[in-house]
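note to self — DONT lose this again. spent like an hour looking for the file last time. sequence + predicted structure for the chain T wanted, 636 res
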Amino acid sequence: MSASSNNIAAPAPPEGKPLVTPRQLTLVCVVLLALAWGFLPEFTVSVLSNIGLYALVAAGLVMLTGVGGMTSFGQAAFVGMGAYATAWICTSPTAAAWLGGIVAPGLLPWAGLLLGLLFTFVLAWMLGAVTLKLSGHYLPLCTIAWGLSLYYLLGNMDFLGGQTGITGVPPLVIAGVSLATPRALGVVIWAVLLLALWALHNLLDSREGRAIRALKGGRLMAESMGVDTARHRIKLFVLAALLAAVSGWLYAHLQRFVNPTPFNLNIGIELLFMAVVGGAGHLWGAVLGAALITLLKEKLQDILPSLLGSSGNFEVIVFGLLMLFVLQRFSDGLWPTLARITRRWVREDSTAKASTAAAPAKALTVQLAQRTLPATGELLLQASNVSKRFGGLVANNEISMTLKAGEIHALIGPNGAGKSTFFNMISGVDDPTSGEVKLAGQPMAAKPSRAFAALGLGRTFQHVRLLGQRSVVENVALGAHLRAKRGWLAAMLRLDRAEEAALMAEARKQIERCGLGAHADTPAASLSLGQQRVVEIARALAGQPSVLLLDEPAAGLRHLEKRALSVLLSQLRAEGLGILVVEHDMEFVMNLADRITVLEFGTVIATGTPAEVQANPRVLEAYLGGADDELLEDAR
């Protein structure tokens, strides 16, 4: 794709410096590692194998902590689950009796893998269902608690060897080839790691990946887009646990024995440290962090005792100081810094641009879910005597209003009038204390906001809620989450590409419609506040709503931008959408709305057309205070 087709000039390559894409650089590094593997010293191979095992767990922590926003200190316990499962099934007479000769000796490690994944899945789902309901510092504290519990459980069960552990774990055998040495098994370890990174990258570059990214600091927004955030958090927790279990399985067959020591809380902290130091939001940061910490630990264990004249785990002190340094100087980890340093030699991957350009063609093969808009005048949203009380404070007092297809209804009132509280109740964020809200004729009592989205309600927010570091097109595509169906496994295996192309084509269509086509590939955080509000409108439209709730959409817009927004909303009204607008800009409201409801102190004081509201003495006195009558005259 030429630079002109994207309206972005391609940077000139530094003279004398070859440019490569990240994908090409990755392939070169993998090929070099593969070519050098047979010639490396045994000790180096062992260290690299350990780095691969640690990186596999750290990659899960990147997904869980860096992307999903859930801190866990207990991943080492899941590593132990995978290790002990295969060690027990491969060495226990009881396990052999249970299998009853069904599984050949050479297949026992694979049976151990299945057992470890099964136990880890069940345990992680149960722990996640309880743990992930907590927030703040309670969540990491809870992971410490069950991490310690699992560690002591493994060390105190006699059939698992107690503190002594299990010896005599057989090597892996693949196609008749025994992987009894680190040099042989290390190839498998790194192959599994690279496949895991590829699958996780595919997952993040998908519809489900956008939902995962929204979990960190954007759960309210994600729910309003139709994402089941509680379910996604548990699934992400289970995914990280399964990666840890696979690492434990490989570890058991690498070391050929298992005891509880490598799965204690200190190791769990160390694994989290690897993810944070490397770059908690970047998959390759897991590899970088695992390599740095592993190599540093090897060196410090040799250097520190000789310097201090005594033996001990002094490297823990250095790790603590290093953590403080990294958090202060490199809050996003070392990987983003490394990426900035190498930017002059590494150019953007043109493959991604080419696939984006081909998105409209691919989109023709998949039809996103379509919603038939209701007939003009049909009742879409109805609030009947809705009240909201916070203790003794009455925020909304028996408010009733309706929204019909093909109309724009404005909700106005001074600050503190209760507009935002009412807005949240009719969008599923809060439940009313009394009264009833109906959407598309269905009672919505106690239903989450994603249920409102599923029935055709789209919304924006008073305080903009976007994924700031992601592009505008990715943010808008999140709004169409419910219009596609492909899940995690399809995304990991890239079986969702046609559907993904359709989502991106829809997102770009709405971006163009809202006048931000030139900014489609720009990070959302780099836009002005007014433009970010327009991005939220485009995101809501991507879900093909029949009801559109806009919370102060004109705030931060310049005069011409307000005019363009007014034209867009008029077009949407003509198409049959019902639009509810909360706005402080009286000129914008009076020239646009078909009906207006005025709130004061949580109570409706007037409802009618703009002309009727402007002539209402109670509005003039209570809302505008009489002194601002000229403002209403100007708006007429």
